[in-house]
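User: Please fill in residues for this 143-position structure.
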């Protein structure tokens, strides 16, 4: 399970250090793709295969299903860590997520997300103001 928030910098070659805490969970090969909210989703290969199968089951006759499949899968790239624990992010993903220099890498259960620091800070500020309302509407932890 991935959790936590880490701030790093993108180097001039489009590489970013993956937090040591996430490296083992991602494994040797993993997949990065366009995520929701203009961030990059990074999945360990086993999680990617589960997600890919679910996408494959979407009805081909539905235009929204085709659009989602195209968006999600066409942006996907198989990645690996270099010896320094960095991931080289393809330019199409860096452009999509508006990654410049400062990035935030967060753990979200079965995936890692990579955000531009500016977008993450804005998102977090908005989310904090509505967190309690969202929790009341969708979450029932029976606590």
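Assistant: Residues filled in for all 143 positions:
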């Amino acid at each position: 399970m991935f959790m936590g928030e880490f701030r790093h910098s993108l180097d001039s070659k489009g590489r970013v250090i993956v937090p040591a805490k996430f490296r083992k969970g991602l494994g040797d090969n993993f997949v990065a793709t366009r995520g929701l909210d203009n961030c990059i989703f990074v999945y360990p290969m086993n999680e990617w295969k589960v997600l890919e199968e679910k996408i494959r089951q979407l009805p081909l006759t539905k235009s929204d299903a085709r659009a989602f499949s195209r968006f999600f899968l066409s942006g996907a790239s198989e990645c690996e860590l270099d010896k320094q624990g960095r991931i080289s992010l393809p330019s199409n993903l860096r452009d999509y997520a508006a990654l410049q220099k400062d990035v935030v890498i967060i753990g979200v259960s079965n995936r890692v997300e990579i955000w531009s620091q500016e977008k993450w800070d804005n998102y977090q500020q908005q989310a904090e103001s509505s967190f309690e309302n969202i929790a009341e509407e969708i979450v029932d932890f029976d606590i």
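For context: Helices lie at 20-26, 45-56, 63-74, 91-96, 117-138.
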